[in-house]
Design a protein that fits this description.
The chain has 321 residues and is mostly beta strands. It has one domain. The protein has 4 helices and 19 strands. The strands form 3 sheets. The protein has a 14-stranded antiparallel beta barrel. A hairpin with a 4-residue loop joins strand 13 and strand 14. 33% of the residues are buried. The N terminus and C terminus are likely disordered.
C-alpha cells in the first residue's frame, strides 16, 4: 500500500484540525473562565475556592473517510484555592483530549506566589505535571492492515512524559492579564514506527490572555477579552465580549481567527456561587473536513474564604481630618 494513501486515510480524523490552525493544545471558547488551564499563575486569583468542569464536543456529526466519529472531545476540570496567609495559591488541572484514535490526558499541580503591585496583584506561577498519550487500536481504520505504520501504531502502548509550564498573571478590580508558556521542555512521544509520523513532540506554547471590566450601568458589566496563542510555528487569536446583567445573567459573542464565531449564554445562582454557561461555535469558513457546529457546556462552583486578621479601618468624610 502506498504510505501516502495510508496517512491520508488514518489521519482523516485529525487533518481538519491542523489544516488551518496547527496548535496541539485544545482550544476552548470559554477560555475566560479557564485561565488556570493556560496559566499556572492564575492559581488562587479569586478570594475563595473555584472548581469548574467543562465538556467540549467539536464538529458534531463529523464524517471521516470511513463514516462518522473521530471528532475532538474534551473534558476539563480545574480547581483553584488561595492560601491567604502565604500570599499564594494552588491549583489542579485535569484534561482529557480525544481526537481520532488519539487519547491525551494531562494532569498538573499549579502553584503561584502573589505580590502586591499598584491597585492589584502580580503572581508568578509554576506548573508540574504529566502528559500521557495512547492510541486506540480499535479506532484505526485502514485499507491495508499489513501496512507497517498501521501495525506499529496498533501495537503501541501508551506513553507518559513529564510536563512543565510557567506564567505571570496580574489582576485588579477592573483589569486582568496573563503571559504564560506550556510544554516548556517540549517532551516527545515515540511509538516506534518506521517514519516520523509515529514520533510526536509537544511544541512549546505561548499564551497572552487579558481583559477589562467596563461598568456600562449599575446593572450591566461588559468584559471584552482576548486570548493570543503561539506554538513557535502558528499564531492564532480569539476574542470575546461578555456582558453580565443584574449580576446574574451572562450573554456574549466570540470569534476565533480562521475558525469560528460563537455565542455564549449563562447564569449564576446562589449568590454567584454556582455558574452554568453554554457556548455554540459556528465554523467559518466552512470546509469539507469540518462540521459547522461545536458545543461547550461548563459548570463551576465558588466558595468564598473570609479574610483573617483585623478588619481594615474605614474612614468617612465626617470624621476625616
Amino acid at each position: 500500500m502506498n504510505k501516502k494513501i495510508f496517512l491520508a486515510v488514518f489521519f482523516s480524523a485529525i487533518a481538519a484540525s491542523s489544516k488551518l490552525i496547527a496548535q496541539q493544545d485544545p482550544h476552548f471558547t470559554q477560555y475566560m473562565f479557564n485561565q488556570l488551564y493556560f496559566n499556572p499563575a492564575a492559581a488562587g486569583i479569586e478570594q475563595g475556592f473555584r472548581g469548574g468542569l467543562l465538556y467540549r464536543h467539536q464538529w458534531v456529526g463529523y464524517q471521516n473517510s470511513f463514516g462518522s466519529g473521530g471528532e475532538p472531545r474534551n473534558i476539563l476540570f480545574t480547581g483553584s484555592l488561595p492560601i491567604l496567609s502565604a500570599n499564594s495559591g494552588v491549583g489542579l488541572v485535569l484534561n482529557s483530549d480525544q481526537i481520532g484514535p488519539y487519547q491525551d490526558i494531562q494532569a498538573s499541580v499549579n502553584g503561584a506566589y502573589q505580590f502586591k503591585l499598584g491597585a492589584g496583584k502580580l503572581a508568578a506561577g509554576l506548573r508540574l505535571g504529566v502528559h500521557s498519550r495512547s492510541i486506540n487500536g480499535n479506532a484505526l481504520k485502514v485499507f491495508d492492515e499489513s501496512d507497517p505504520e498501521y501495525l506499529a501504531l496498533k501495537s503501541a502502548s501508551g506513553q507518559m512524559v513529564p510536563d512543565f509550564g510557567f506564567g505571570l498573571h496580574y489582576t485588579s478590580e477592573k483589569f486582568f492579564a496573563g503571559l504564560s508558556s506550556t510544554h516548556l521542555f517540549e517532551p516527545k512521544f515515540d511509538f516506534s514506527g518506521p517514519s516520523s509520523v509515529t514520533k510526536n513532540t509537544l511544541n512549546r506554547h505561548y499564551y497572552f490572555l487579558g481583559g477589562y471590566n467596563f461598568d456600562l450601568s449599575p446593572e450591566i458589566v461588559l468584559t471584552p477579552s482576548v486570548n493570543m496563542k503561539y506554538d513557535s510555528k502558528v499564531f492564532q487569536w480569539e476574542a470575546s465580549a461578555l456582558a453580565k446583567i443584574n449580576n446574574q445573567f451572562l450573554v456574549g459573542l466570540a470569534y476565533r481567527e480562521q475558525d469560528a464565531v460563537s455565542v455564549l449564554a449563562g447564569l449564576t445562582l446562589l449568590d454567584n456561587k454556582f455558574r452554568l454557561t453554554y457556548s455554540l461555535d459556528y465554523t467559518v469558513p466552512a470546509t469539507e473536513a469540518k462540521r459547522p457546529t461545536s458545543h461547550e457546556i461548563m459548570v463551576s462552583y465558588f466558595h468564598p474564604i473570609a479574610m483573617r486578621g483585623p478588619k481594615p479601618i474605614i474612614r468617612t468624610p465626617r470624621y476625616r481630618k
